[in-house]
Design goal:
Elements lengths: L6 E2 L4 H7 L6 E4 L2 E6 L6 E2 L11 H18 L1 H9 L2 H6 L1 H21 L14 H10 L4 H19 L5 H10 L10 H8 L5 E2 L2 E9 L2 E8 H14 L1
Parallel strand pairs: 1-4
Antiparallel strand pairs: 2-3, 5-6, 6-7
Length: about 240
């Protein structure tokens, strides 16, 4: 009585490159993300690209936020490929789309295999998700929209702690694929949700930053300092 075996047949870009992989599948409780869900890995994943024929454009855009995230933290060559192409490239070219999805599945699968329970490298997959999860339900954004805004904030914070100086480049790519990069939000409301985030460690937060495009890092930032950084980002906008 310890649960049942299950598998996934993902039917969106977001599910194919992200949600179906890794054994962490949950539902939101109020404004808090993924609090109730599975505790095991799926027995199988079945990908059928023909299911994407009826996918609305906004859901293509939604999924590409996670694709851009993977490139930003792990694959500079993929980031450059995305810069050369555009959304319609992958919508029209089935071979290019299949290659792109396989590449992203390989990135996330490799990370999960090394660190299934998120004690180290798997934390990198949360790039853009700390702020993103906090604003997603507060402001009724799609996952991709929220994560995109979160990635820009993480890039700005990266410039405070790392050699990273390519926020504009990341913003340009996100805009190219139809994703938002800036948003107004109430920092008090956001911080209240952030304090419930799984990445919180006592009075600090494991925040995912970039050393450079293709190289993510984990930085432990005190909550009080993070609050000030988010305030400065809002002011800068």
């Amino acid at each position: 009585m310890r649960g049942v075996s299950f598998g996934f047949v993902p039917t969106s870009i977001l599910a194919m490159v992200d949600a179906s992989i890794g054994g962490k599948n949950g539902i939101d409780v109020g404004v808090y993300k993924n609090l109730v869900g599975t505790i095991r890995q799926p027995e199988f994943l079945l990908y059928d690209y023909s299911l994407l024929k009826t996918l609305p454009k906004e859901e293509w855009v939604n999924g590409f936020a996670e694709i851009i995230k993977h490139a930003a933290i792990k694959d500079a060559a993929l980031f450059r490929e995305l810069e050369k192409n555009k959304l319609t490239t992958y919508q029209k070219d089935k071979a290019a789309l299949a290659k792109l999805i396989r590449r992203n599945v390989a990135i996330k699968s490799a990370v999960v295999e090394k660190d299934e329970f998120e004690h180290g490298e798997r934390r990198l997959l949360n790039f853009g998700h700390t702020l993103g999860h906090a604003i997603e339900n507060l402001y009724e954004l799609s996952h991709g929209q929220a994560i995109s805004i979160g990635m820009v904030a993480a890039c700005m914070i990266s410039e405070e702690f790392t050699p990273f100086r390519e926020t504009d480049r990341v913003m340009s790519l996100l805009k190219k694929y139809g994703l938002p990069t800036l948003a107004e939000f109430d920092p008090k409301e956001v911080m209240a949700v952030l304090r419930m985030d799984k990445k919180k460690v006592k009075d600090s937060m494991n925040y995912i930053l970039l050393n450079k495009v293709g190289q993510g890092i984990v930085k432990l930032i005190p909550i009080n300092e993070l609050d000030k950084l988010l305030q400065s980002i809002i002011t800068a906008r």
